[in-house]
Amino acid sequence: MLIVGLLMIIPFIIMISASLKNQAMVFDNPLTSIIPDQIIWDNYLNVFRDEYYFGWYFNSFRVVALTILLRGILVTMAAYAFAKIEFKFKNLIFMIFISTMMITPDTTIVSRFLFYNTIHLSNSFWALVIPAAFDVYFIFMLRQFMQSIPKELSEAAIVDGCGHFRIYYRIILPLMKPPLVTMILFTFIWLWNDYANPYVFISDIKSQTLTVGLTTFQGLGGANVALQMAGATLAILPSIFIFTIFQRYFVEGIASSGIKG
Fold first, then answer.
1. What was the pLDDT predicted at 179?
2. What is the pTM of this model?
3. Architecture in CATH of 52-256
């Protein structure tokens, strides 16, 4: 595991190292020049001076925050319905949802692009938020956790006169901190690092997210790799920060979501 961990962290070390070099030094042997002889901070200064960079940062945060909010509402309510409510064709509908996981999003990207153009949703951050608000994987994960909650709690609440919505937000949700934090972490990392969707659905450079925006750092001889590495180093800081704080809940959520099938 130590060897695997080193193999995974070495690219990040090389990225940080390249961000402290000039363009010519970047292509030196990275394993022999991890610490450059001359540390150059101009790449970070140029990132801060870029007219679009912090706008891209805000766009990424806006997409992530809105998606987490909508996903938190829609996915938890759907998971509650499949876990705690009996209705006609429940298992069939759930299996249809699960079967959609076999279709990779990349195979539908052209049809989605045409559809978003038709409904005038393209070149808008809503083209990223609305499709991501409903996720079958997290419905399945949260349903598994809800099924591990004793049904006697819901039955006692029903006897006391509570309806399903009150049971959902007064009893079930307070018990679901670990899987909810897991969903938030996954959602943040997946959307923060998403490249294909904003690249295809957003054409305005000011409306772009951070991942696509970094590719526009170009020099006269092509891509300014050192500048891109500086921008990428700053871009990964929120993911590291959030994962470090909520790591305990992340592990608990993954472990507890598979208690009951």
1. 86
2. 0.83
3. Orthogonal Bundle (1.10)
